[in-house]
Amino acid sequence: MQAASRESYAAARQRLDAYAGDAAADRIATTGDEIGLVAGLLRREPRLRRALSDPARAGEDRVGLLGNLVGDKIGADSRELLGALVAGRWSAPSELLEGTERLGVEALLASADRAGELGEVEDELFRFGQLVTANPELSNVLSDPIAPVAQRAELTRSLLADKAAPVTVKLVEVALAGFGGRSFTGALTRLVELAADRRDRQVAYVTVAAPLSDDEERRLGVKLTELYGREVSVKQTVDPAVLGGLSVRIGSDLYDGTILRRLTDTRNALAKR
């Protein structure tokens, strides 16, 4: 987002956080669902996106337009938060859509936080992403842009039934819709990171040949926390192909100490002789 859009989103996010500090978890989740529905409407209607982000219109006019469109189809909490969003200045219609999608996601994460389930939701999203990546057939089905989102969502609900928190299931459906214009697996990864960020943590993606023990994972997390000055959430991926050692990716930083990497470097060095 450009500066004006970031400021508008930040103002709406501040209101969301104040609201989420007092409301019950199920009420916040309903608000997240409703904001997500409006995001879906904006995704389908480019003319509406342009009208609601038009700098030639006064902010109160844009809020009025939104109110006329949604009426009483969504609750007062959602109308107030969306009103704060569209009243701001947006650098482009696409950034209003991005801000609306993000606000809906943050509301769902806030509901999980309120219910004491945010860490669980973060882990469930990551594990489901691993399951999808490990199953090419499932990945192809869930990532198929031609298949209706509702059809793919029905499949994920059946896979996650009684195995994941309700908010996790909702967020997987957000990923299916292409959250932020990303691929399905890319959207899942971003949602994991947003869940961690809400817990004031960074995510460390760790690839190993064999699973780390609980103690090894804890000690790695402590070392990374000391290095980055912020709590780190370690997410393990087991890949026997790396042979041994481990690689760690945090944001744009990559530390690759795997045996596979060392063998590759040696092979490349020998090839240059």
UniProtKB/TrEMBL annotation:
It is a peripheral membrane protein. InterPro entries: ATP_synth_OSCP/delta_N_sf, ATPase_OSCP/dsu. It is found in: Cell membrane; Membrane. The keyword Membrane applies. It comes from the Bacteria. It holds the Pfam family OSCP. Keywords: ATP synthesis, Cell membrane, CF(1), Hydrogen ion transport, Ion transport, Membrane, Transport. Belongs to the ATPase delta chain family. F(1)F(0) ATP synthase produces ATP from ADP in the presence of a proton or sodium gradient. F-type ATPases consist of two structural domains, F(1) containing the extramembraneous catalytic core and F(0) containing the membrane proton channel, linked together by a central stalk and a peripheral stalk. During catalysis, ATP synthesis in the catalytic domain of F(1) is coupled via a rotary mechanism of the central stalk subunits to proton translocation. This protein is part of the stalk that links CF(0) to CF(1). It either transmits conformational changes from CF(0) to CF(1) or is implicated in proton conduction. This is ATP synthase subunit delta. It comes from Plantactinospora sonchi. The gene is atpH.
